[in-house]
Automatic annotation (TrEMBL):
Taxonomic lineage: Eukaryota, Haptista, Haptophyta, Prymnesiophyceae, Isochrysidales
Record-level GO cellular component terms: nucleus
One of the GO biological process terms: proteasome-mediated ubiquitin-dependent protein catabolic process
Protein name as it appears in the record: UAS domain-containing protein
GO molecular function: ubiquitin binding
Domain (UAS): residue spans on this chain: 66-187
PANTHER family linked: FAS-ASSOCIATED PROTEIN, UBX DOMAIN-CONTAINING PROTEIN 7
A Pfam family recorded for this sequence: UBA_8
Protein origin, superkingdom: Eukaryota
Amino acid sequence: MADPTQQEVILQFMSLASCDADFATSFLEANGWNLELAVQSLYGDAATPSWASTQLRGRRIGRAKNLSEIYRPPTEICFVGSFEELRLTGRQQSRWLLVNIQSPTEFASQQLNADTWTDEGLRAVLGSSFLLWQRYFDSEEGATYCRHYLREDATFPHIGLLDPVTGQLVKSWHGFTAAERLAVNLSEVPA
C-alpha cells in the first residue's frame, strides 16, 4: 500500500492521465515517484505541461495519440500468421520461436511494447535467429498457447523461447523484461 504522500501523487497522476490507480502506481514506481518525470515519460517532452511555476490545476492533456504510439505492438518485427505457421516457418528458416503473450490490463505488457521491443540492439538479435509472435492471452490463439504451455503458471506478460522443431518451451520470462537482459539471454541460445 502506498504511503499518504505517494497516494497523493498517485491521485495527481490519475487526474492528469485519466487512468486507474494500478497504471499510475506502475508509472510512478518506474520513475522514482517523481510526478514530473512520470508525466514526461508518459507524454513525451513536447506535450508535457510547464511545471516550474504552476501546480497541476486539474489540466487534462490529450493522450490517446501519444499513448497509442508509445505502447503500440511491434508489428514490424512480429510474425504474421498462426502458431502452426510460425512453427513451420521456424523449422524452414532454422529460427527459434519467441512467443510474447500479453494482457491488456497489465502495465508490464505495455512496457514491453514501449521499451523492450523497440530496442535496436534487441531487434538486431531477433532478426538474426528468432521469429517473434505476439498475442493477447484472451485471444483464441493466445488462449490455446496458454493451455498448452502455461497451464497454471499464467503470469503476464509471458515471453517463451520455443524450439521450432519439437515445439518445446525451452526458457520463459514473466513480467517486464528489459531489452538488455533479454538480448543477453537470447544471444546465449545456440544458433
